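User: Here's a chain of 495 residues. Predict its fold as tokens.
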Amino acid sequence: MRMRRIEGYMLRPEEAQERWLHTLLDAGKDTEYGKKHGFSSIRNAESFAKTVPMQDYEGLKGPIARMMRGEQNVLWPGEVNWYSKSSGTTSEKSKFIPIPEANLYACHIAGSWDSLALLYHNKPDMEVFRRRNLVLPGSYESLEEYPKTKFGDISALLTFHMPAIGRMFYTPDFDIALQPNFEDKINQIATVISKQDDIVMFGGVPTWIIVLFRMILEKTGKSNILEVWPHLQAYMHGGVGFEPHRQKFHALIPSDNFVYQEIYNASEGYFGAQCDLGVHDMLLFADNGIFYEFLPIEELDKEFPRTVTLADVEIGKNYAMLITTNSGLWRYMPGDTLIFTRKNPHCFLITGRTKQFINAFGEEVMVGDTDKALAETCRQMDVVVNEYTAAPVYFGENNRSKGGHEWVVEFEKEPGDLAQFNQLLDETLQRINSDYEAKRFKGMALDQLRLRTVPKGTFMRWMRARGKFGNQNKVPRLANHRRFVEEVLQFTQEV
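Assistant: Prediction complete.
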């Protein structure tokens, strides 16, 4: 039944998008925000874009803070008691995204069902409702000054509100899964699930799943995860680029029949999932409580930027995503960038973050570029990388006459020749990104990128020291400043 609905919006996404725009405007017309911006008089996407301003979290931080303390009808009808806490990769501050019941069920949980339907469509022999499934969630807590308000990782909120049929096939028990201390939790989960042999599917951020799996292998003395869980079939992953981790997972799960499905579920909404497991792009969920607009990257810093709707996107063009959702986010920019790979169905690849890039010299290097370049280089030289972050080196710094990029890399399996790895990585990045290649031409503008290696475990210790240790926290890959790179390098000297 779900596949029939999915196939409908795969072929006719514009119809679903128009319906959701009117549904959302109607829902929000009597809220404080809806009255301020005249939702009642908006008739189409064009007038919506002219009437309602684009905004990021800073523009909504005040209204959301009021909502969390019990004020009603601010951004969404009624009182909202659940909030997804996003730690933010590039920001030190947390973001709190409202999760009203409409958003919880018609976006996040609906997206989970759609992802599962697509997985079964590709692999009909899945046994999700026969054996156990593992998800590694975060936690949630009450707001001290208004205890009715609960906030936490979106994974924890979804686990807490998991439909009854899902709870029957979930492991571990909720008391362990939702406890607040992540370090204690992951240890307890490893102890419990290392004694089970019927896990068929798992989900979570790759970095922390790898940590969990290594703990399980240490406890069991097994050489790979299939020796612990012989019925294992699939991994739903998302949150970070998977390519740098793919080799590690193949070593942990050495099976040609095991499948990987990428999903795109963020605090702000459930946006898509792979619909064809043989292709790396994802299907945009066009009928999922969200109205989308897309901002061409070249419009990003303009005073009056021009957006396009789903009907007018171009294949291969880089866009920043703009969303209007059933959580009260109106023309909101979550910070992700993507390109469409095909239309009808509209499928896409995430290319990076609007705040995670290096463009110090006009090279326009995005996270998708560096993830892909690193993965290809690792494959060619039989190397495994745990984590990395990169930043520009500006003219004049460290007596440099030219600019360049500096990468701080933590290897799991080091290259035999680091200089060769460094050169190959630079050449691969040039092949992937023509702007970087142009700036590197004969070394006229940019020098070859340079690698700085750090000991194993450095990034995890650094994240813990920053207070960003846990399932929803991710290492910032790229920055147009040197703060993260300098912090990691300084941290290695102090430890």
